[in-house]
């Protein structure tokens, strides 16, 4: 512990990040530039989320990290260990017990409470970037509220595929002003962006921080005749039987065998422990430890 | 420099600042919520909350404007020693500290269309702070909230500037609340 400043970053860096977070909360959906630091992990591994978490954590917090909903992937485990070591915070895998949750590409299934903070790792924060490569131009488009290009993109989806084919990183409009990339969460999660907890987004390589305060209006872009639809695999979880959770598809063998399971491991595990069982799950034995 | 400029800072800077920032962030994310903060003791007339907010957010990168009543040599020495923040006129300041009547609102930076974040944050010292007063609604507020504000028209005009505008932190003794530009005041 004594080898690191609390939560790794130096105090001046944390102040700079904290000022950016406050401006981000004051201007929901607007990407605040910040002087992202090199972190002891590569870009793409959540350096933005890690810097935001470092600026937000207090010693009293209980920290949870998920990667695509799972607590036990390499990325999630490394980041959780990183803050266990540098901030000495308690950690958990239970969504309901965590006060700060860092996430890559999912929003937990369990609704977040007012005292919880969700920190997203963001690869490309600019929703218009793949439509307009120039930062000068996209910045101007945001300032003029010129989002026609995004609607054209969704329209082209419809004209080519018969439906809006964008399935993740589905663009949203925040509080009627800024179009925002919710990070590559499945569009199934978009309705959860209006929540009781504070949502902070950090993009390390792209050097942007943005935020959505609790109870902020977040509207997924759509058309009157092609309304937004949160979609998931039309199946129940094969482990816990849940029909309301986002599912991962798992290939089981070379013969085309497959199963669907909750991407949120804590949600699935909690349900299994409560006695729910899916088509391929093992029923909970009465005397299980 | 007076010796008391050396006193009243954070005793454990990383921990004190982290806890104080949680209060500041909660206040800014949930307008109308009053949070307790502590850790710094600034010279009079600055409150504990204002001193703590300054130590948590200000450093050599952030020019500060001092309202007339706060602009004493003791306060200047304390801020200079504790944070290294330079002092600046209102139009160059990123932060301002002072009583409501001491802050020339029209002069502060409200950001630009392309960089609305380049706007000042005003730390307003209040004689009292309570959840009775103007009705607030907007991001961060479930239905409505109430907060004792020093004015109404000024905040309504500020909200009209969105996405530009000023953000406010109200401090009184060891408590603070905040009002970002998005909050609608009635």
TrEMBL record, chain A:
Q: Which reaction does it catalyse?
A: alpha-D-ribose 1-methylphosphonate 5-phosphate + AH2 + S-adenosyl-L-methionine = alpha-D-ribose 1,2-cyclic phosphate 5-phosphate + methane + 5'-deoxyadenosine + L-methionine + A + H(+)
Gene Ontology terms: biological process: organic phosphonate catabolic process
Q: Which EC numbers does the record give?
A: 4.7.1.1
In terms of Pfam families, this protein maps to: PhnJ
Ranges in coiled-coil conformation = none
Q: Which UniProt keywords apply?
A: 4Fe-4S, Iron, Iron-sulfur, Lyase, Metal-binding, S-adenosyl-L-methionine
Q: Which GO terms describe its molecular function?
A: 4 iron, 4 sulfur cluster binding; alpha-D-ribose 1-methylphosphonate 5-phosphate C-P-lyase activity; metal ion binding
InterPro entries recorded = PhnJ (IPR010306)
Q: What does this protein do?
A: Catalyzes the breakage of the C-P bond in alpha-D-ribose 1-methylphosphonate 5-phosphate (PRPn) forming alpha-D-ribose.
Q: Which family does it belong to?
A: Belongs to the PhnJ family.
Protein name per UniProt = Alpha-D-ribose 1-methylphosphonate 5-phosphate C-P lyase
* Species name: Sulfitobacter litoralis
TrEMBL record, chain B:
- Domain of life, source organism: Bacteria
Q: Pfam families, per this entry?
A: PhnH (PF05845)
Task: Note the InterPro entries from the entry.
Answer: PhnH-like_sp, Phosphonate_metab_PhnH
Database matches in SUPFAM superfamilies: PhnH-like
Matching entries from NCBIfam families are given as: PhnH_redo (TIGR03292)
Q: What is this protein called?
A: Alpha-D-ribose 1-methylphosphonate 5-triphosphate synthase subunit PhnH
